[in-house]
Amino acid sequence: MSFRVEKSTEPIQPRTLLNFPNIFKPKPSVTSPEVINCADPGKTNATPPKETAKESDSCNQATGGPEEVFAIPREDSTDDTPCDTELTNGMTTSSSSIHPKLHFSLTYNMQHKELHVTVIEAEHVTAEAGCEGYISGLLTTDGRERQAQTSVRRLTGHVQWGEDLVFPLPDGYKMEGEVALSLHSCDRFSRNTNLGAMRFKLADVGMMSDADCWVDLQPPKQPQVTSSAGEILLSISYLPAANRLGVVVMKAKGLQSDRLKNTIDLSVKLALKHQSTKLKKKQTRRVKHKINPVWNEMMMLEVPREMLSKSSLDLEVLNQAGPGKLEPLGHCQLGLQASGTGLQHWQEMLDNPRKQIAMWHPLFA
After folding, report:
1. Full-model pTM
2. Compositionally biased, Polar residues: which spans (predicted)?
3. From its phi and psi, is residue 166 left (phi > 0), alpha (psi between -120 and 50) or beta?
């Protein structure tokens, strides 16, 4: 027997003798029309669709067999499946308003003649990030009012307190009167906002006693704002050792643009008064061409501590409309004789010496 060996200079191309093993994939449980070529996992000779024939050929060359192909549904495609219908009908859309819910209970202490309102928790609370809040109670009987409030907690969708609001009722609860519970939020500038309130009569305490009460807090009625001309952000502090009052005029917003048609040249004039006597006047620099001006300017005023209770600050936003022509845009007042945020800001300054306290104040024309 003889053998003959022939030599060749052509490169030898290896042939694929082994086929890639078939991979069985789980059968999709979705039966929407967007799923195409859903072959039975037990069958390996599925035929690819026509529109993907080229891609399937190239894939078959690498794997040695066809593979199941699924088309991703488009975003604008609609699928009227029963699950989607139930979710749409059962869930409330974000556009609808959901009122906060308050969970509380009532107990009348016969021994101490006190009404205990236990504030347990609140749900569906909507507030800006970083805001804190508390629950306040107001008891009104025979024209007299008694107030109480919980501690301040960071507001989230669900807030827990577990605290008691105690109201003395020496004559019992079977009398004319009512209790109002309100949810308040306050931001880092101590701007207080009423998020909702509820009321109940004292005559209903016996029926509501020792029962868990869930109540929707109704939004407060919007008061009629009298000629509001915008807001101004102020920060004040008092240094007892130096007898100095520090006032930082930070910025303003919401100024009436119809009064700033031609020229925008804004400044703030500050006057320190003791009773009706003006002690000191100062004015910030002027900021031009900005409808929401920022000053960030500090002014130091010397005031003895014993005079603070009868002193006040008057601030006025001015616009330099022309040479020697100053137009007032709005004013506000801080002091124990003031009202609203002016009174609240001044009182917090007295209660927290050496601490900078910032707060927004409405401007009135």
Report:
1. 0.46
2. 86-96
3. beta
